[in-house]
Design a protein that fits this description.
With about 550 residues, this protein is α+β, with helices and mostly antiparallel strands. Helices cover about 20% and strands about 30% of the residues. The protein contains nine helices and 30 strands. The chain has an eight-stranded parallel sheet. The longest helix has 21 residues. It is globular. The two termini are about 45 Å apart.
Amino acid sequence: MRGLAFSLIALPLVGAQTWCGKNYMASSPIVPPGGNFPEPTKSSTPLLALRCSQAIRPYLPEDASSTDGSVAILIDTPLVFSHISNAAPITLSHPTSPGSLIVTVAANGKEIASGSVPLNATKHALPFSLSALTPRTAAYDLTCSATFVSQTFKAAGSLTYLPAKPASIGSVTKMDLRTGALLARPANGKGGAYAPVFPIGFYTQFDSYLAQDLTIPATLKSQGFTVVHPVPDFNNLTALDLVLDKMQDAGLYLMYDMRFTYMNATSVTAQVNHIKSRPNLLLWYTGDEPDGTSDPLDATVKASNLITSLDGGDGAGGAGYHPVSLVLNCEDFNFNSYTSGTDIVMQDVYMVGNNVTFSAVWGTVCTKDYGDCGCDNCIGSFTDISTRMDEFRERLFINGWERTKAVWTVPQGFGNDTYWKRYPTGKEFVVESVVGINHGGLGVVSWDDPTSADIKASASGLALALPKMNPFILNPSATFKQVTTGGVDFGLWTVGSNTLVLGSNIEYVSATIRLQDIGFSATIPKITQVFNSGSQVDPVTFHLSFESVGSGGFIVTK
């Protein structure tokens, strides 16, 4: 995070004189930073990019009796025209009706599943039985072999099937690779079924805030928030444990941060061993903008492997009992290296109240090759968020990571600081959050709390509305599309005959949108508003009206 943290790291930054690999001092020359994401070359003929992964990660012995279809191997068979990861030429006799593959799945060479999978399928499930495997720390090597007429294709992955958590582990967080969402038991530690969790909350100052008032966790819970991300240092472990106990009592999940020490193996070991017994631990957090500070390119992988080895996993790429996360600040600087070391990659585009083309701090212009304006390669509109989210998700797809990694968003919840001359309004904050969700974000964790009363109230409004929207956003059976029209950014999740329509006006003028403009028929039996941040539905025409930077959530019944 660059806001409040900037003052803490200003001197090292000045010494390094780069951010996102770019020189930013007025006395420094313009030197292209490099580190760009390698764009795949195009193909004039179709390619098959076969992918396979387990549906839920990790599996546990308790999953062996599951009958909900979640014990399965997901097969993706996209037909593409660029040389993305594992793309291989395929000859199609009927391109408009390409047919199906015969797929066989093996774990460490032992066949566990097989079936017919259509070409261009997404997350096609091939069920298997966990009784064919033995729970163990080491991940299984997953091999998927496919035949199409006389052509053969292969894909590799891994399958983690861990033993039941030992007494030293307080909780397990699974990733539903059908959606990218997290699955966890209730944070209060009193038991209960695994359920999808939409993490919404703030990076929260510890010494100056959380440690000063132990009633804060209960207040945050009443405001609808689900996760707290305390900001280190945690020099007083007694105070830390008291705060974490109060978070657990309130039913708040913990996102545990090791930003300042994640490259120190001794410190990471001590911290993981101290925290991993907590029933409300949701996930770990390592690098805080490691791309900005040009941390060693293998740092996040080393940290993730160490954490996983201490948290029940093999430390060699398989999953542990909790996922690992980090945030990237740069638009395009060594994305692959840093993201290799995480299950969840977050982006933190901060453009509100910010001149993103001329640095008020350093007195220089900001370009693709030079300068630091606090928002890398931004244009100064809410589309900076959608663009960054889309770019990150597209890179995951290109790398074959779209099933195994998820993207979260970090809305700007601060201002009056260095580059950022004002706070976002509450409505602007909601737009930042909703645009992130509409473009694939499965968590909203803002920098930082304490924040303004307006932001806190608006964030709470969104958090309190999410339980009505999560059955759509986090549903493996939902079909999704994103539409931007008339200056309003929409996400549409359809489950059965109902569609969640989540929209944010990204312009500073009011807008009215017809449901036909986003793909509905002219006749709609019913529409119910479930979230309001400056929006309404006309009871006669069912047109959706949005104030300047207004947002709303609606359930449309066909």
